[in-house]
Structure formats: C-alpha cells, structure tokens
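Hi team,

Filling in the usual template for the complex we talked about on Friday. All components are listed, including any nucleic acid strands or ligand strings, so the model treats them as one assembly.

SUBMITTER: L.P.
PURPOSE: interface mapping
COMPONENTS: two
RESIDUES: 510
SEQUENCES:
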Amino acid sequence: MRNVYVIGIGAGDPEQLTLQAVRVLADLDVVLVIDKGEAKRELTDLRHELCATHITKPYRVLTAADPDRDRTATDQVGYTGAVGDWYDARAEVIGALLRDEVSAGESVGILVWGDPALYDSTLRVLDRVEQRGTVEFGYQVIPGITSLQTLAARHKVTFTGVGAPVHVTTGRRLAAGMPAELDDVLVMLDGSETFAALDDPDLDIYWGAYLGMPGELLVAGNLQERKAEIVALRAQARARHGWIMDSYLLRRRRP
Amino acid sequence: MRNVYVIGIGAGDPEQLTLQAVRVLADLDVVLVIDKGEAKRELTDLRHELCATHITKPYRVLTAADPDRDRTATDQVGYTGAVGDWYDARAEVIGALLRDEVSAGESVGILVWGDPALYDSTLRVLDRVEQRGTVEFGYQVIPGITSLQTLAARHKVTFTGVGAPVHVTTGRRLAAGMPAELDDVLVMLDGSETFAALDDPDLDIYWGAYLGMPGELLVAGNLQERKAEIVALRAQARARHGWIMDSYLLRRRRP
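RESULT (copied from the run log):
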C-alpha cells in the first residue's frame, strides 16, 4: 500500500503546523505538489520551506501540472459541472503519478493550505482516484488551522454570538445578499468584493488578507465606513504580491 | 503588563497542539484554570498532562471556581441573558485573580479545548475584564484545531459541497429542523439528541464523540438508518465516562 497523507498546514504561518503534521512530514518519502503556476510563487516557496524544515530524510517532489479548468460557467449548475470535470482530470493525473512514481510502502504528503475540509478539492479528488481503482493506496487526513481561525484570533473575536449559528460561505453565494435570518457570516473566496455591494448599515466587518504571513493586513469596523478602505487595500496588495487571499466575518450589530 | 494567552489546544489529541501553542506554553508562568467540577476529570487530567509536557519552567496553576449559571431559561432571550450574567460573574473572578495573583510581566495561559472562536466563552469574558478596567493586561489568541475539523478528518469528508456554504449551529437551534435551503450543517452542543428527532429520509450523518481521545467513537451513514445506533452509543459512552462531547455533520444527498 502507498500511504497518502493529506496534511493541513495552516493559513501561512509556519508555526501553525500541528505536532501531528510535523511528525507525519518528518517521515515522508514523497511530496506531491499540484502546480498552480507562477502567480502564487510566495505560497509555493513557503511550502518548500516547510518541507525543507520538517522532512528529516531525503525526499522526492512530484509535481502534477494542474489541468485547465473551464471558468466560463455563469450559474451554479454550470460551475459545479465544470469543477466536476476538473476533479476528474486531476484524479487522472494524480492517480497516474501515484501508480507510476510511488512504490508500495512509501509515504506521500499532499500539503493543503488551511484545512482539507474547508474549500479544498484534495479529498474529492482522492475519492475519485480511489473509485477508479487504478492504483492501490490508503489515505489519512491531518487537520490544519484555517484562515478563518487566524482571522478570528487576530481580531480577538468569536465566530458566533452566544449559542448562535455561524454561516460559512463564498463571495459568489453572498452576492444574493446577507441572509436576513443570520447575524454572523464568514466569507471566503470573494474575488469580486461582494462585501462592497452590501448596503446594510448595521453590519460590522472583520477583514484580513495574507493571514499568518509577513504581509498580513487587518481591518475592522462598520462595513459602510470601512469598505472603501478595504477595496483600496486589496487593489494595492494584489498589485504588489500578484495575488491575494482574504476572508472576512460580517456581523450584524445586536440590539 | 500581564500577558494573557488564550490558547486553543485542539480537540483532545495532544498532537493537535500547534508549534505556536507549544512555544507559548513553554514560557508560561501561570496557567489559569476554570474548574468545571469532577464530571470532566478526564479533560482536566489531559490539560494537566499538556502543561507538564510543554511548560519548560516551574509554573503556578490558579484555579477559578466556575460561578453558578442559571440553567432554567427556556427561550433564547432568557438563555442569552443568563449566559451574560454568568460571563459577568466569571469576569469578576478572573479579573480578581489576574490582579491579585499575577505580577506585571508574567505570562498567563488559559487553555481552551478546540478553538477560542468556536462556542467558547473565554474571549467574551476577557473582553468584560478589559472593560471593567480593574487590572492591566494584554491578551493574544492562539488558534487551535476544533472537534469539527477532527470529525471531518476522521470521516475523510469536506464541510461543504463544491462552492457551497456550511452552517455551524447548536442542537438547541437545530430543534427547529434542518434548514430547507441548506445541504450541509455542522452541529455542536447537542445534549438533547436533536438529530434523532429529524425525519428527513435524504440526510446522511457523520457523527463523532471524544474526537482525538482514546475513547473516540465514529458513525456514518443515512441518518434514519443510523440514529438509533448513535443514541445507544451515546448512552453507553456517557454512562462509562460520566460525560460526553460529540458533534456531527448532517449532509443532504444531492441529486
């Protein structure tokens, strides 16, 4: 059996690795990397640094070219279908690498920013590799600190009011508006600055970008008062880094 | 200044500590413990073990008796009010301990199971201590792995469908039913086994208890087929341990 470990490595701060992640990293034979191109070179470098620091024996790096993804879909059904096709293409690439480049008994790490359970495709892709049945392997999941947890820690806020729910969603979904029955919503993957289109006067925003990394940015306050500042910061930061990853909590002021 | 660290210590597995938590623990002068009585002695022992393992110098343990909480409220308003009073009482006790028992420059750790942002009162209590202004201190938050992340890792599932939202809520809130517009709901603090009252035939449940601990229990499958088994397991486990902490993901089967 090939042993695959899907390892949550935290939001960007190397100190967010858990002792479990450190132990598993130490013993890897292979690191499997899905190449996302030059844009996020900082993230790639950071990942290589984690490997160099914690893997205690010689290891191989296998790089899978990320298959092209159809980004033309405009509705949710088209989007989900395009993403499904892309998962299949990834499963094909990763299954072939595991079969042809990894020997039985070897340990393979797939390093995931944040936590593998939150808006990451690795588990869905491995599930498809398993269903294809073209390579024998087992896998385990190591949880990691997400950017949302880092966001809350930096702003010293909780996700929820007392005994209240919290909703975790994407910018794409938030475009329909802040759900009326919810007071606390965590938003990821909002490349379109959906927050800036919301006009509720009673919303506070706790925003953060590059959380846990050297260029970390934080803004908190009333959404209407702060949104222009966040939009400007995003534009500057994206120009400087070439990419941006941010997230935020929207919180309705309670009476 | 007294330096207070609110440290997320993971769901129960000592290996879920982050390197940041280990570094901060190593340098503590004081561990502040809120005594929750005998029932959860296993958890108290585990916390002492973490301290003994990672704190590298002599340290003091300050124990705050947990103030009584009015548990008679039957609606959300009464519940929130009772919890608010209890936070005030906790803030009084903790403020006095920090003022009288900790010297300026000392480091104080408050160890929180899971993550301080998720259904934990420590940040709200410290906010109240700060507002009272009776003691000078600063505080930082160290994120930790939650039981929900451990649950997802053990079951090898993601929290969400592709680009979909996830709702995190309590058993108390779920009593109103599985929200019709949601496919993925994570539930904590469900002492009343609310899941067992849901009759939707198309829900799957991924359930776990004592996650990350030696007595870990996991069940997954169709809710209607598995709920009796989970109710029975909960009763047995609670009788054996004297307490239970569990959580689950409810997932609607997609067409």
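MY TAKE: Residues 2-142 of chain A form a domain with the Cobalt-precorrin-4 Transmethylase; domain 1 fold (CATH 3.40.1010.10). The mean pLDDT of chain A is 92.

Thanks, L.
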